[in-house]
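Notes from hallway chat w/ T.B., transcribed later so I don't forget. T.B. wanted the structure written out for a chain they're using in a teaching module, and asked if we could keep both sequence and structure tokens in one place. Agreed to drop them here.
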Amino acid sequence: MRSRNESGFTLIELMITITIFAVLLLLGLPSFSEWTTNLRIRTVSESVMTGLKTARTEAVRQNTIVTFVIGAADPTWQVRRTDTLEVLAQSDFGTTPVITTLIPSDTFGVTFNTLGIAVNNPDGSPPLTQIDLTVPETLLATANARNLRILISGGLMKMCDPNAIGDARAC
């Protein structure tokens, strides 16, 4: 029996609390994993958007033609002057597993003229009009993934969700 001055938890109460906490943690773990994977793909998409905006801005600022190059197999992007090939900015996707699909598939990037408008690339290929960034199926089911798409038209760029319907995030 306890006296009136004693307070605290018994060992059984503490064990029950820890067990309940562990069960709740196990129930929430799959959605937390889904959330972090989707957050990582969002971060990669924002990095690509930053690269595109940097290329457009540098073309106007330096009054020269600047090319944004993205690797489909190699998860990196680069912004470089077309005349000197000087690298103005670059980034990689780190350890984030992402599948990059470029449209049209036979091109490598976007070239911006001195007005910040997308023009044909130096090799004559058309500029990218769409970049799809997707999570591999092995990491997350397509139904749960927040795959993102970047649309490029002229000097304008938009990041959108191809799976969102009737929403401001939709493409």
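Follow-up for T.B.: Strands lie at 66-70, 76-81, 87-92, 99-103, 109-112, 118-119, 130-134, 148-153, 156-160. Might be a good example for the class.
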